[in-house]
Design a protein that fits this description.
Strand content: 25-35%
Number of helices: 12
Bound molecules: guanosine-5'-triphosphate
Structural class: alpha+beta
Oligomer: single chain
Number of strands: 31
């Protein structure tokens, strides 16, 4: 397949708008998987993905499709199509941008009844900024409340997409699906790249397989990659021999070669995924090449301590975390010790859902029992001597300062919220209670409003989404992007049991909220701590000042 007959595309959508179902249908339509193969959503492979109905890790599949146009007969040319699945949730936008780097186009799937939602907007801009050709797909047109014309208006108003470009489909009944792959071939450009240059490819993903070793997913940008070739990593300088190379069809299928523009897998005797850095350039050995632009590195925005539920299980937890991070390089891990919980790890995540998913995978895939501490964000503190530190663990912030804190900053986000207009009042109240500042308030159609707020990240990582869903009867959708650090009046709050601070329970709070947060925490603890024959005092304190107390 020369590049002219290759197309690399992604499907992007708000959660639940039908991306995985559409992907399944396309795989069936091309005979890549059997119809009714018993397991819906082929590309959602992790147990946590099936349970939560969300896509966490992007997967790729290659399909072959004969493109018959009016002027051609049955020997119409066959095309090689690489479908790169992407996660829909905001926490995984790191995975999304990674997948988009290997694509020239994207199907933007929008639910015909729900219309454009917060993550539709975020994903559209990720694709737009990567210069992809975007094909709008209005899905679920079989639903009684479907209103495709309204969705077309929204697409026009928000993204300046011509209504005539939209495809109308139902991934459930199959209606309209026959237009999708012809549109992919006609509207998405073939991959650029020089066929006769030495091989150069982008490392998209890697994982460890017990039998085969490290398997790398790559997009070949220039040249061709053959079994037996010697390749080198631009990041580490190490070289390897290509032991096996092929496509995901949808399982690993050896082909012996990958040509310019193709996406596939390579096995090259790497011993650990640490050698396979995502975003690295792999190239023909013994020559120097210009490295490809890598990916935006993962930014860790939520931190939490993870401890074994039974202190003696530290080794088991350590082993489980090591294995899991082999497949999720976006988690940062450092060892830490707590007086209360013993030895454990401080882990950094992309967001709250990412943290939950990691936690759940530890328990499900590795049988680890885990205690996690209150999530926190990376604060910056400045001391009297002018030095600045980033604080990822509140307990590490000395409460008895030989060093006086002179200023502190906290990370903020720009949040996009889409809601039916009758909920605007309560949502504005929620955002201002969470110290938000309104940036925008517009209507995307007659019934729906779009609000933009700058909010401290800390205020949205605990409970914000649940509360937002609660006050809007589940209708609100929400997405956020990182914004700047803002100066803030922050204090460290300790929890004391019988006068002794419990390091694992220390948190950093906004000064004005300290009293309320402290009161809530000690009341909650009173309920959780079993009754004893003697008195136990439970206190919340800032420095030496007690701000709440229960007995
Ligand atoms: P994430 O992977 O979490 O981002 O979700 P997704 O966008 O992949 O959505 P998914 O394919 O899992 O579909 C969500 C739900 O919508 C499922 O219950 C599907 O069965 C249903 N669904 C998908 N397409 C259609 C459709 O065309 N019509 C109807 N009525 N339901 C659909």
């Amino acid at each position: 397949y020369p590049p002219e007959r290759v197309r690399n595309f992604s499907i992007i959508a708000h959660v639940d708008h039908g991306k995985s179902t559409l992907a399944d249908r396309l795989l069936e339509l091309t005979g890549t998987i059997q119809k009714g193969h018993g397991q819906p959503q082929y590309l959602d492979k992790l147990q946590v993905e099936r349970e939560r109905g969300i896509t966490v890790k992007a997967q790729t599949a290659t399909m072959f499709y004969r493109h018959i146009t009016a002027s051609q007969d049955s020997d119409a040319p066959k095309y090689l199509l690489n479908l790169i699945d992407t996660p829909g949730h905001v926490d995984f936008s790191y995975e999304v941008s990674r997948s988009l780097a290997a694509c020239q186009g994207a199907l933007l799937v929008v639910d015909a009844a729900q219309g454009v939602q917060a993550q539709t907007i975020a994903n559209f801009y990720l694709a737009f900024e990567s210069n992809l050709s975007i094909i709008p797909v209005i899905n679920k047109i079989d639903q009684p409340t479907a209103d495709p014309d309204n969705v077309k208006d929204q697409l026009k108003r928000l993204f300046d997409i011509d209504p005539s470009e939209a495809l109308l489909t139902s991934a459930k009944t199959g209606k309209g699906l026959e237009q999708v792959l012809p549109a992919v071939i006609e509207r998405i450009p073939s991959p650029p790249g020089k066929c006769d240059s030495p091989v150069r490819m982008l490392l998209l993903d890697s994982y460890y397989d017990e039998y085969k070793g490290v398997i790398c997913h790559v997009a070949v940008v220039d040249g061709a990659l053959r079994k037996g070739d010697k390749i080198a990593s631009a990041a580490t300088g190490r070289s390897y021999e290509v032991l096996d190379v092929g496509i995901m069809h949808p399982e690993l299928t050896p082909t012996g070669v990958l040509y310019t523009g193709q996406v596939g897998y390579v096995i090259s005797g790497m011993r650990s995924t640490k050698e396979a850095r995502i975003g690295d350039t792999l190239h023909q050995a013994k020559i120097t090449v210009e490295p490809l632009p890598g990916f935006k590195p993962a930014k860790h925005m939520v931190f939490s301590g993870l401890y074994p539920a039974d202190g003696s299980d530290f080794e088991a937890l350590s082993h489980a975390i090591e294995k899991l991070t082999c497949n999720d390089a976006s988690v940062s891990v450092t060892k830490e010790t707590s007086n209360a919980l013993g030895m454990g790890f401080r882990c950094g995540f992309l967001g709250l859902l990412h943290m939950d998913v990691f936690h759940q995978r530890l328990e499900q895939e590795y049988g680890a029992q885990v205690i996690s501490t209150i999530p926190t964000v990376p604060y910056i503190f400045e001391y009297g001597d002018g030095s600045k530190v980033q604080v990822e663990n509140p307990a590490a912030l000395a409460s008895n300062p030989g060093k006086r804190v002179t200023a502190c900053w906290e990370p903020t986000v720009i949040a996009t919220i889409i809601i039916p207009s009758e909920y605007v009042g309560p949502v504005i109240m929620l955002c201002s209670e969470r110290r938000g500042e309104q940036l925008e308030y517009t209507f995307i159609d007659a019934q729906r409003a779009l609000l933009k707020y700058q909010l401290p990240l800390k205020e949205i990582i605990v409970d914000f989404y649940n509360e937002l869903k609660g006050i809007t009867s589940g209708y609100a959708t929400f997405d956020y992007e990182d914004s700047e650090y803002q100066q803030s009046d922050l204090v460290k709050m300790d929890i004391l049991l019988n006068g002794q601070p419990v390091d694992a329970m220390s948190t950093i709070v906004h000064n004005q909220k300290a009293q309320r947060v402290g009161k809530e925490l000690v009341e909650k603890l009173k309920k959780f701590i079993e009754r004893q024959m003697f008195e136990i005092t439970i206190q919340a304190a800032i420095g030496s000042k007690v701000i709440a107390r229960e007995t």
